[in-house]
From TrEMBL:
Annotated protein name in UniProt: Uncharacterized protein
Amino acid sequence: MFNLFGRKNRASNIKPPRGPGDTIRPEDAAYLREWAANKSFIEAYIEPETLVNEMSVVVVSETGEFVRRRIGGPKGIDAVAKLLGCSVYDVEETGYPQRMRERIERDRILRKRAEQLERRARFASDESLGDAGDTDK
């Protein structure tokens, strides 16, 4: 029943998506190459591996646009540097560039404004429908 002295259960068949020594996937490499093709100035920032995420790269353009892709492991750093031909930084040492943070904040503000306009338009249409039904005034 408890099998205290017997053999342990077999190892599970669950495997990580790829080993820690692997490099960037071909589809991720193609996407990064295509994304960077029409950008004039780009830099790459390596994000460390965590319990939930593989090692990844954030590629930032001069306007603050950015894209994030998994690179698998340390071999992926060299692959990204060779693929994009840009400067590569460790985000833990340098942090993210200011232009990226400003772009994120600007996009957040624009998204909030669009949501407010949508709510106001919806509120105005609800008000006009409510006023049309009132004949006592």
